[in-house]
């Protein structure tokens, strides 16, 4: 048992806890510009508060990405399909500033 504890103490790196283990050392996924444009277009109704649910925007994005992948596989030689996960889309939407003007109950416009 003592030998096992010594092994754990030697091999444990507290930095791994901060980076959630599985993501340690893994670079962030970067999307090409055409995917970012599609994501921007899909998130716009949510930011304008015309669409209350972000999942509907994601479903719309999935369809547009599939269609764009189909077109690019024909026109661009060596094209590999690109997928956008819901988690990445939610992080993208969270990083955007809302464009709707919100009216608060007490303070008027925000």
Description of the molecule:
With 110 residues, the chain is mainly alpha-helical. It contains 5 helices and 2 strands; from the N terminus they run H-H-H-H-H-E-E. It has a two-stranded antiparallel ribbon with strand order 1-2. Strand 1 (103-104) and strand 2 (108-109) form a beta hairpin. Helix 3 runs antiparallel to helix 4. The model has no long low-confidence stretch (mean pLDDT 79).
Would you spell out the secondary-structure blueprint of this structure?
Blueprint: H1 2-11, H2 14-18, H3 33-47, H4 54-75, H5 86-95, E1 103-104, E2 108-109
Antiparallel strand pairs: 1-2
Q: So what's the overall shape?
A: flat
Low-confidence stretches: none
The total strand number stands at 2
What structural class do the secondary elements suggest?
mainly alpha
Major β-sheet, in short? 2 strands, antiparallel
Order of helices and strands: HHHHHEE
- Cα radius of gyration in angstroms: 21 Å
Strand order of the largest sheet: 1-2
Number of helices: 5
**End-to-end separation:** 60 Å
What descriptors fit this protein?
mainly alpha, two-stranded antiparallel sheet, 4% strand, flat
Short description:
Helix content is 56%, strand content 4%. By secondary structure, the protein is mainly alpha-helical.
């Amino acid at each position: 048992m003592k030998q096992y504890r010594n092994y754990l103490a030697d091999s444990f790196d507290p930095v791994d806890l901060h980076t959630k283990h599985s993501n340690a050392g893994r670079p962030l996924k970067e999307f090409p510009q055409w995917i970012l444009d599609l994501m921007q277009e899909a998130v716009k109704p949510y930011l304008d508060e015309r669409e209350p649910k972000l999942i509907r925007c994601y479903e719309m994005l999935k369809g547009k990405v599939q269609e764009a992948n189909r077109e690019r596989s024909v026109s661009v030689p060596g094209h590999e399909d690109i997928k956008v996960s819901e988690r990445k889309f939610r992080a993208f939407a969270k990083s955007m500033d809302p464009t709707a003007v919100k009216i608060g109950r007490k303070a008027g416009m925000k």
